[in-house]
Amino acid sequence: MSQKYTLWDGITRAIGSVIGSGILFLPSYTFAIAGGDVLIVWVLTILLCIPGLIFLSDMVEAVPNNSGMGGFISLGLGKHFGNALPMLMLSTVCLGMPSAALISGKYISNFFNSISIGFSFVQYITALIIIWFAVFSNLKNLKTNSKISTILTVLLLVIAAALFFMTFDTANGDYHKIKPVYNISAISSGVILAFWAFAGFENLTFMASKFKNPKRDLFLSCSLAILICGALYLALTANYAAIVDSNHFDKLAGLYYLSEYVTPKTLSTLVISLFALFAVQINFNSWIEGISGMVQASSNEGYLPKLFSKVDSNNNPHNAIFGIGIVFTIVATFGFFFPSIFEKFLKTVATNFVYMYLLAILAYFVRSKLGLKKILSLMFCAGLVYVLLSDINYIYYPIVVSVLAIILSMKKERQYA
Question: Does residue 194 lie in a domain region?
């Protein structure tokens, strides 16, 4: 009998999919955009995820295989839109994940610099270690991979709790900095960026076939992951806003700035650096597993080269995993030597995830019968459209990618006609 993931395995993968580099810079970035309304931004973003969880459960039941969200979009909007999803997803994670590894590497580099033993390539080497540790972890069997994910998750949550309590005393008394002013424009801009924090639970749809009870376990796993990660974002954002001088900080430097205010400095820098490392590492382990499954499914269907459909003795998509690792390495190398493009990468990735959710919810709307769920899906679509239009300059990238993917899908269909 083949091994299957349990509910606990699902929780660790859901946390791994949702948590990541966003926890390192989004508290500072959203505070820079929304100011006193920053906690409203996080609460609204968490609430926006609730309909998505309901739709996710129905998606998994309709498409219980590794095609995940793409397969569901095909059912509602047609196969060409569904076939565009893998290219959209790849064009997103190939920007976002290497950037995440470099952000974590920057934290580790700063720690070594703080104890006067730093050298130039610590950031880059750390990024490569994160990428290839995740690659080789995913080449293990399910039982071993599950143990690795469990250890990483427990370590992450312990360090996160330590970080919060270390910063609480310093923050206490200055929470007036996040008193809401209800600036609708700032809140809207903050929500589209904060959405990055929860763009991840759709990754589990590409692992659905590995679960004993996909419909139940995926829904529960993602619900708990969003609650845990949402609580972390709220707590760390509140402490960050209360502690850091908002007039003198780099919005992408994020939580690392806390080490400048929290004593003892060496210990706080170490805790923050370890938090960055484990947050991104667990994110990589989960995402490479999910994305490689998506690539394999697309390869089996003929929309990606057959090379990526091959599996090893552990039934892992060996070539897809290695291919993703190579692409991530190339993009991380480019990002390391040209760091000025980071912020554009981050906003592009956040917009892409909102766009992909919109396609999935539109598909859900088309498929669902008239009733409460159909009304909810329509309202959710309207909210996502409003969020996308609040920063229209970044919407062109996912539209161009999806149009190109649809053209390629139609061309391939004509070849086999």
Answer: yes
DSSP state of 116: T
246 or 155, which is more confident: 155
Q: Which amino acid is at 205?
A: T
Q: Is 165 part of any domain?
A: yes
Residue 251: other Cβ atoms inside 10 A = 17
Q: Is 270 helix (H, G, I), strand (E, B) or coil?
A: helix
Q: What is the pLDDT of residues 168-179, one digit of tens each?
A: 888 887 888 888
Which contacts qualify for 153-158: CB closer than 8 Å, 24 or more apart? 153/11, 153/12, 153/15, 153/16, 153/282, 155/278, 156/15, 156/19, 156/275, 156/278, 156/279, 156/282, 157/228
pLDDT(202) > 90 = no
What are the tens digits of pLDDT across the range 44-68? 988 878 777 777 777 767 775 556 6
pLDDT in tens, 334-370: 888 887 776 677 778 878 888 888 888 888 888 888 7
The domain total for the chain is: 1
Predicted confidence (pLDDT) at residue 321 exceeds the cutoff of 80: yes
Domain carrying residue 260: 7-416
What are the residues facing 408 on neighbouring strands? none
The domain that contains 63 carries what CATH number? 1.20.1740.10
CA–CA separation, 89 and 32 (whole Å):
28
